[in-house]
Design brief:
Blueprint: H1 2-8, E1 17-18, H2 50-58, E2 61-62, H3 65-69, H4 78-84, E3 86-87, H5 89-102, E4 106-116, E5 119-131, E6 134-138, E7 149-151, H6 152-155, E8 159-165, E9 171-174, H7 176-197
Parallel strand pairs: 2-3
Antiparallel strand pairs: 1-9, 4-5, 4-8, 5-6, 6-7, 8-9
Helix pairs in contact: 2-5
């Protein structure tokens, strides 16, 4: 019944925000702390601007959780990330989100998918920034400063948001969570059909 219902639901704008608190497990199996805990604890890194945040992140190394922690998914606390200066997308994004919140930005931590040619290309975590100029997507794992910040209007078709956390650590859901489920079900259906038709 759930699958049938999902197939009939239309999702006009996946970036539409719903005031629906999503469970921690929705963000990923490594999201084990409530998000307000990521905003707590001392930091050894002082930043005074968005440029400082970018510069510090550019000195960090992208390393998957399997290699670093021997776990499929592990979300580091920013204190740990500051010591290791290594991690994957959610570690970069959580640290950046915390620092931007500390600087007074209206910043959301967002979990969802990257898209390639309109198809799901992998789970990902990034940051949304709201300023007077509008909404920007901040990509903390980018390896060049000019690839880190983009107007949302320019990159919205390359990301599919599902779940977010605002600057007060309040969880919410995007309409994109429904679209992601529709796409996953469509992929599963296509795989089953191909398996049945295979010689």
């Amino acid at each position: 019944m759930y699958r049938l219902l999902l197939r009939t639901i239309s999702v006009p704008d996946p970036w539409e925000r719903l005031e629906l608190e999503s469970p921690l497990t929705s963000y990923g199996s490594g999201a084990r702390l409530d998000f307000w805990k990521y905003l707590e604890g001392d930091s050894t890194v002082t930043v005074t601007s968005l440029d400082d945040v970018c510069a510090w992140l550019l000195g960090c190394t992208y390393v998957g959780d399997e290699a670093l922690f021997h776990e499929p998914d592990f979300w580091q606390h920013p204190n740990t990330f500051e010591r290791l200066r290594a991690g994957d997308c959610e570690d970069f994004a959580i640290w950046a989100w915390r620092k931007l919140v500390e600087l007074g930005y209206d910043a959301d931590l967002v979990a969802g998918y990257c898209l390639k040619n309109g198809a799901l290309a992998g789970r990902h975590v990034w940051v949304l920034l709201r300023e007077n100029a509008g909404v920007s997507l901040f990509e903390p794992v980018a390896r060049a400063r000019d690839h880190m910040l983009h107007p949302l209007s320019e990159v919205r078709d390359r990301y599919l948001p599902e779940f977010g956390v605002d600057r007060h650590a309040k969880r919410f859901t995007f309409d994109g969570a429904l679209l992601a489920q529709k796409m996953i079900l469509a992929n599963e259906r296509e795989a089953r059909e191909q398996a049945v038709g295979a010689p």
